[in-house]
Design goal:
Blueprint lengths: L1 E7 L3 H13 L3 E7 L2 H14 L2 H5 L4 E4 L8 H8 L11 E6 L4 H7 L5 E6 L4 H8 L3
Parallel strand pairs: 1-2, 1-3, 3-4, 4-5
Helix pairs in contact: 2-4
Organism: Flavobacterium zhoui
InterPro entries: CheY-like_superfamily, Sig_transdc_resp-reg_receiver, TCS_response_regulator
Pfam families: Response_reg
């Protein structure tokens, strides 16, 4: 079981479903949510600049990331998150969760070393079982 997961999606129903499935699967102790990439980056900046060393160690081990969101989408988040400014979080694994599996998006996701998989929404118990063996 992971200590903490971050779900980034603009759809409240998707976030609620994500939480319910993760809890049911006993996949993570804590689930944090953000409604877009900018909110997620703000969360990591808050961890970096306002928390103690102990709290910095307690960050999400996994991010479920939607691609199409207002304000800042998944690709833009990945572009920012893969820069040196967020290097202390480089061990966080990211699963892209998208409602469309576009082959171009799948190929693009492979260019980001922290992205370990590209899966279709919605998140399911079977998907989490599969991920347990991958993380």
């Amino acid at each position: 079981m992971l200590d903490q997961i971050l779900c980034v999606d603009d759809d409240p129903i998707t976030l609620m479903l994500c939480k319910k499935v993760i809890i049911k699967a006993s996949f993570s102790n804590e689930i944090i949510t953000a409604q877009n990439g900018e909110e997620a980056l703000h969360y990591f900046n808050t961890l970096k600049y306002t928390n103690t060393e102990d709290q910095l160690k307690k960050h999400p081990q996994l991010i479920f990331l939607d691609l199409n969101m207002p304000v800042m989408g998944g690709w833009e988040f990945l572009d920012h998150f893969s820069k040196e400014a967020f290097s202390e979080f480089k061990n966080i694994k990211i699963i892209v969760l998208s409602s469309t599996i576009d082959p171009e998006d799948l190929e693009k996701s492979k260019t980001y070393p922290m992205v370990i998989d590209f899966l279709s929404k919605p998140i399911t118990l079977t998907m989490l079982e599969y991920l347990k063996n991958k993380i």
